[in-house]
Amino acid sequence: MDELEQIKQDIAEIKERNIKVEADKAWETSLVRKVLITSLTYIIIVIFFIYLKFSNPYLTALVPTIGFVVSTLSIPIFKNIWLENFYRKKKNKD
User: Fold this and answer.
1) Mean local confidence (pLDDT), 11-19
2) How far apart are CA 68 and CA 82, in angstroms?
């Protein structure tokens, strides 16, 4: 294979990888994923609370579920703060 063909193949592989990365990013930020995680978290906690015989497990399970959702939704905010204040400053020093 000559050099030009190798470059074309490399570019095609990079484009294919980029499509996968974009799809993964779209899934990570999708509302469907957030609702699914929230629903599954709530269901698992309800089952656990029923097993432990908590009074009103359906209502009680909302507290840890909301806490989990709030903590996961705030992660991008802290990620951006970290990127701006620590990661990029460190990269600029190198």
Assistant:
1) 96
2) 21
